[in-house]
Amino acid sequence: MSFNIDQWMEKYRKAVTEHFGSRIWFMGLQGSYGRGEASPESDIDVVLILDQAGTQDFLEYRDILDALPERDRICGFVSGKDEIEAWEPSDLFQFYYDTTPMIGSLDPLLDHIRREDIVRAIRTGACNVYHMCVHNLVHEQNGDILKGLYKSAVFTLQAIAFLKTGVYEKKKKDLAGCLPLEDNNILSAALEIKKANGLSPKELTRFSGLLLEWASAVIRKDWEENGHA
After folding, report:
1. What is the dihedral of CA 157, 160, 165, 167, to 10 degrees?
2. At what angle do helices 143-165 and 89-97 cross, to 10 degrees?
3. pLDDT tens digits, residue range 150-186?
């Protein structure tokens, strides 16, 4: 039987609301299922934010998840309302736009996100990709790690496109039209490497080099001078 995310989310919503009730400030779905790009192996990225949350709440939430089907694929974010409202704003940008709501709204978070936070998200994303790509090329030489770095690069591309257009494109096919050539090359490579069944040493080097050159350019760019949004 094929997996149906809508049916699964109904089971999730029912189980969580029966336990936490009015304490739920927000519930939603992130990741590939939220974007409509999931594969049979995709994680189920659920978001739960309570009015307040402590260790006992997290343990009880874990027990709820343990009783649900597809437990090994469930991940996501859980916190209290005070924590998410005080979160690092450059992280909130991606969190807000990549989350599909089921209960409540994340709109209050928009008051915490400014242009400089989006620029910081871009720089931080590119720095992390650069650092880990060099580490992988020199030490691990692992194709799966490189695939994960390309996935991270796509998040940075979404922020770059948003800074330019003011529109957040969740799906890769829609994102392509918002980016210049050098960024589209990374997007195309991300799609290619995702489909690859393993990478040869030559391919690992080629894809790593492409990603490093892109990340280096993003890090060195003067976003205050070149930003559009």
Report:
1. 50
2. 90
3. 999 999 999 999 998 999 998 888 898 888 888 999 9
